[in-house]
């Protein structure tokens, strides 16, 4: 059987693959993280492009989808500087996205994944990947006309090391000071690194990680809000509920009900449009 040159995977599938160590013989060297704001407000949507990055080193998000592909899938005439100039690892993140467009792409990629070895499917994914690469280039050139896309630098390495530590320790440690001390840098340096690389402050990243874990537990378990609060290291349930509403504009129970009603609503919307 011919080896696939691309796949579309959820964060949980990435997690499973990493645990099972199934990546070694796969040719993927371009990875797009497609993240949609789960509340549907759209202000947190982003795409992250990872080039020449080992998948097990990515701080994967269980709420994201990942398009992983072989660089050779692209057309030879694809003239994109970042693909040509460097074989070093690089990670580039862009915001200000059209949520409906990304949602459409995810749906189409999921459909195409059923035919991932077909010629037509390859052509579709090639076009999507090239559009996404061009979008990344245009976004960066528009916002930073004087800045070239450089490989991962000290700030990038520091920022992604911070992300890994937060994901491992956020239940116990929620202060920026703790992580800065463990990384051997000042809070100011850590803040510069995360804002330069991830466009987010260290405190915001800790809060975002906490919120996303809470969302996952609310959606995929039947644990009570009190149990989830305790698991996340927040002793007072009221404090957790207040924090969650501040981050999402709805309460934990409202979020759980919304996510469990969503498949029915999407199905109904699809039927109504036919």
Automatic annotation (TrEMBL):
Q: Where in the sequence is the signal peptide annotated? A: none
The UniProt record lists the keyword Transcription: yes
Q: From which domain of life does this come?
A: Bacteria
Asked if the keyword Protein transport belongs to this entry, the reply reads no
A GO term for molecular function: DNA-binding transcription factor activity
Q: What are the UniProt keywords, alphabetically? A: DNA-binding, Transcription, Transcription regulation
Cross-referenced InterPro entries: Homeodomain-like_sf, HTH_AraC
Sequence ranges assigned to domain HTH araC/xylS-type in this UniProt record: 160-258
Please state what the protein is called.
AraC family transcriptional regulator
**Species in which this protein is naturally found:** Sphingobacterium corticibacterium
Its lineage reads: Bacteria, Pseudomonadati, Bacteroidota, Sphingobacteriia, Sphingobacteriales
């Amino acid at each position: 059987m011919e080896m696939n040159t691309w796949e579309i995977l959820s964060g949980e599938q990435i997690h499973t693959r990493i645990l099972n160590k199934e990546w070694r013989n796969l040719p993927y060297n371009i990875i797009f993280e497609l993240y949609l704001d789960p509340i549907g407000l759209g202000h947190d949507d982003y795409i992250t492009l990872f080039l020449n990055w080992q998948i097990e080193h990515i701080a994967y998000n269980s709420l994201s989808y990942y398009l992983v592909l072989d660089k050779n899938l692209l057309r030879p005439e694809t003239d994109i500087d970042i693909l040509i100039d460097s074989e070093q690892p690089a990670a580039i993140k862009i915001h200000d996205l059209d949520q409906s467009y990304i949602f459409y792409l995810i749906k189409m990629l999921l459909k195409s994944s059923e035919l991932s070895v077909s010629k037509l499917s390859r052509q579709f994914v090639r076009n999507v990947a090239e559009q996404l690469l061009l979008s990344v280039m245009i976004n960066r050139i528009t916002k930073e006309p004087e800045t070239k896309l450089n490989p991962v630098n000290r700030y990038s390495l520091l920022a992604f090391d911070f992300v890994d530590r937060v994901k491992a320790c956020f239940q116990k440690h929620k202060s920026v000071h703790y992580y800065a001390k463990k990384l051997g840098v000042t809070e100011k340096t850590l803040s510069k690194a995360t804002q330069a690389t991830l466009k987010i402050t260290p405190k915001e990243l800790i809060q975002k990680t906490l919120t996303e874990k809470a969302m996952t537990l609310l959606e995929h378990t039947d644990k009570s809000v009190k149990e989830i609060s305790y698991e996340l290291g927040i002793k007072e349930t009221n404090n957790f509920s207040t924090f969650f509403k501040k981050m999402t504009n709805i309460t934990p129970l409202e979020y759980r009900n919304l996510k469990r009603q969503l498949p029915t609503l999407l199905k109904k919307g699809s039927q109504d449009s036919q």
